[in-house]
Amino acid sequence: MVISKENKDFIDSLIDYYISESESYKQIAENFVPEIESVPDTTFGIITGCVYSGFLQAYQNQQQTPSLEDMQEFNHIIKERAPLIKKSILASSKLQINEKKSENEPERNLTENNS
Q1: Contact, 64 vs 71, CB < 8 A?
Q2: Under 8 Å between Cβ of 74 and 55
Q3: 77 exposure class (CB count in 10 Å sphere: 0-12, 13-18, 19+)
Q4: For the chain, what are the domain ranges?
Q5: Measured distance CA(26)–CA(24) in Å, rounded
Q6: 101, pLDDT greater than 70
Q7: Which H helix or E strand runs over 31?
Q8: What DSSP line would sit under 54-107, residue for residue?
Q9: Of 42, 63, 90, 108, which residue is most buried, by most CB within 10 angstroms?
């Protein structure tokens, strides 16, 4: 383990932030339909790219360059957290579908009651 505890904590906080904001990044990805094949995969790429950018920026702010070992450890951290990132992206999709269904239900109930 080569990445300092301070930098690991920073990476974890970045990942947590992007997980909490995954819906926003999903909307960015949706702007590229039909050029992209998968909105969730594109969203995942955007999020991991932002975390990677933050990781590099942290090193630059410390006037350091990440070593190969640092990069490998960073990739390991992302790989460990990937299921949570994906889950947050897919959960926001399910939430959106449920919201659309509930928006349409009052109309359906009105038409059923008027029949």
Answers
A1: no
A2: yes
A3: middle
A4: 5-90
A5: 5
A6: no
A7: none
A8: HHHHHHHHTT----HHHHHHHHHHHHHHHHHHHHHHHHHHHHHHHHHHHHHHHH
A9: 42
Take residue 24 and report the two structure tokens written for it. Answer: 């926003």
- Contact by Cβ (8 Å): 88, 22: yes
Question: How confident is the model over 35-66, as pLDDT tens digits?
Answer: 999 999 999 999 999 999 999 999 999 999 99
**What are the CB-based long-range contacts (under 8 Å, 24+) for 40-45?**
40/86, 40/89, 40/90, 40/93, 43/89, 44/82, 44/85, 44/86, 44/89
Q: Which residue has the tokens 């009105």?
A: 110
- What is the CB neighbour count within 10 angstroms for residue 48? 18
pLDDT tens-digit map of 22-35:
999 999 999 999 99
Question: Does the predicted model carry a pTM greater than 0.85?
Answer: no
Q: Kindly state the tokens that stand for 61.
A: 């702010």
Residue positions counted in the chain: 115
